[in-house]
Amino acid sequence: MRQEADRRRYAGRASRRVAHVCAAAVTALLISSCGTADDPKDAAAASSSAPASASASPKASLAPIKPGEVRIAGEVDKPSTITLADLRKLPQVEAPVEFTSAKGDQKHTYRGVLLHEVLKAAQPRFDQSKKNGQLRGVVAATGGGDYRAVFAWAELDPGFARSQILLAVSEDGTAFEDSAGPRLVVPQDTRGGRYVSELNQLWVGTVDPVVDGAH
């Protein structure tokens, strides 16, 4: 009985030694295969050799929008970022407006740049093979607090509508603060829901992917 107990004890010790050696070998293998990138060039090479699935998504790669900036993106050939300072350098238009809001009836005079002129410079990619392809276009305007309103392109295109939607730089002669950015002003609206304050993004696209992909 004692010999049998001794044999089991020795076998247990041997098994633990084997497990320890295996664990040490695996650890050494991992360290030697991974290594450390002390040289910035080595780090860059390691980064470039990483699989595509590990790279950041296109959305994540966009630089954060700073206070007062407006990013113009979507289906455009010339995406850009503009500020109030940029808008003040462009031809200005005045628009007296009246609308109803949660604060009651509003009456103001805004000064700013036509939204159509700014977005036209971004060169939206409308399908010119379609009759009046621009009529498939939509614009999503996003402001502070993730507030968002959507427009049909025809609403701001002077070739189809008489409205003068503005990126306003001032209200009643008082300039907006640079950190607040412009305000979207929609003179034809009787309610102020689409008067997007602290505007930070303008996205241009078409309804085709949604309509054609609908079931």
Proportion of beta-strand residues: 25-35%
Shape: globular
Number of helices: 7
Strand segment tally? 10
**SSE order:** HHHEEHEEHEEHEEEEH
Unreliable spans are: 1-7, 10-60
The main sheet orders its strands as 2-1-10-5-6
SS-based class: alpha+beta
Major pleated sheet: 5 strands, mixed
End-to-end Cα distance: 78 Å
What average pLDDT do the residues reach?
80
Radius of gyration: 31 Å
The amount of helix comes to 25-40%
Q: Could you explain how this protein is built, in words?
A:
With 215 residues, this protein is an alpha+beta fold. The protein has seven helices and ten strands. The chain has a five-stranded mixed beta sheet with strand order 2-1-10-5-6. Strands 3, 4, 7, 8 and 9 form a five-stranded antiparallel beta sheet that branches. The longest helix is centred in the first third of the chain and has 33 residues.
Secondary structure elements and pairings:
Elements: H1 2-34, H2 40-48, H3 58-61, E1 70-74, E2 80-82, H4 84-88, E3 93-101, E4 104-114, H5 115-121, E5 137-143, E6 147-152, H6 153-156, E7 166-171, E8 174-175, E9 183-185, E10 201-206, H7 208-212
Parallel strand pairs: 1-10
Antiparallel strand pairs: 1-2, 3-4, 4-7, 5-6, 5-10, 7-8, 7-9
Entry summary:
This protein has helices spanning 2-34, 40-48, 58-61, 84-88, 115-121, 153-156, 208-212, and strands at residues 70-74, 80-82, 93-101, 104-114, 137-143, 147-152, 166-171, 174-175, 183-185, 201-206.
Tags for this model:
single chain; 215 residues; alpha+beta; 5-stranded mixed β-sheet; 10 strands; globular; disordered N terminus
